[in-house]
Amino acid sequence: MSDANFQAARHLVALNRPQEALRKLGENFDPEDAWDWWLRALALLQMDRGSEAIDAAQRGLAVDPEMPDLLWIVARARMEQNDLVRAEEAILAALRLDAEDPDNLALYALIVARAGQIEKARKLIDRARGIDPENARALRIQSVIELAAGNDREALLRSRELLALDPEDVQAHHVAGSVLQERGDFDRADSHLRSAVVIDPARHDIADAARENILWRHPLMWPLRPVQRFGIAPVWITGVGILYASKFGPEWLSWTAVWTWVTYCVYSWVVPPVLRRFMR
Amino acid sequence: MTQTMDDLDELLQPTVTETRRPAQRPWHLQSQFWVAFFGGFPAITLIAYLNAGRLGASRRKQNLILLSGLVAAIVFVAMVALLEVAEHKRTIRIAGRLLSVVLYLVVAAIQRNDDRHYQTLGAGQYASLWGPGLAAILGGAVLMMLIGAGIVLLGS
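^ Those are the sequences you sent over. The predicted structure of the assembly is below.
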């Protein structure tokens, strides 16, 4: 393929327009050029056509068996298919060709993290960031790994670091928004989640998280925020404790406590689904 | 430098042996509270055990859930055996409920890491607990009544 065509198609992939990239690639596709296969596989991966992406990458590897970028695509596609064993095989093959590539190390970290090996994932990411401290992919994956491990503070710090490098990183906004929402800081979470939705409207999981956050910011949900923040068990234990304590006081206090509690319970069961329906 | 290279060699050894692929969607941890509160320790032990499997938790964690349920059962049996049921029915009922809530806190903590992993790196979709939860609550409540009645009969 001509260099101009290739660069144009590559630019379209970078802009997340894979269908147009495939059309551009089709104009002058060279099956003997491994890079053409690489770009085709990348576009197919963006379109969630994993099997076709793997097929394209493998055809590229038939042309150039030692191209780590193609192995990266195979590893990524296999990971998305939840075939972690074969994903690991592919990424280790890429790392045998270049053990210092931070992108490959970062993807391997994500693969092992999905397999539940968080400590190994952390070591791989530390290695990747040691080679390239400002590698966006490694930072992104690090924030996701820390979020998965329950280390919210670290996940938030990494996502902020990523946003300092790229204020339009969708994943960073998503992670920051999720952590802040979990902490009950719905206003700041809203800012991040809305930004993520504007940048990538196709991500339904982020749109759902943003809608849920809007729900929690509604004034009618304020009485229920302790449940979201602390969990249902502590709120119930506190509530039931107050109910029993009120029995030692005057009767009117006991009745008020009981009916307040019953009202609160009914409120918590009725208001959120009604609000969700109304907001839809 | 050599040590760093050795560490890297060790890091680049294949370690993924199986795929965490739960066959069914798990249930929300918070929803399990209702099962504990209304169904007692048998209900929450069963639901938590099944959910741990759905989350892809290790066999050790699932066994820990069963062990926690067994401890709760022993405490409940001891309580019923030691207290005069006719005089302390209300106390037993309240203590049994409190015991189940404490058990919920324990089994939720056991499941928490795997739940967070599922939310972040897994499919992130949850199933409704209404059907299985109601079944567990009914079964659990009946079982607790039977245990209590059995102990009273044995005592008399």
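The CA atoms of residues 1 and 29 of chain A lie 5 Å apart. The two ends of chain A are 48 Å apart (CA to CA).

Shout if you want it in another format.
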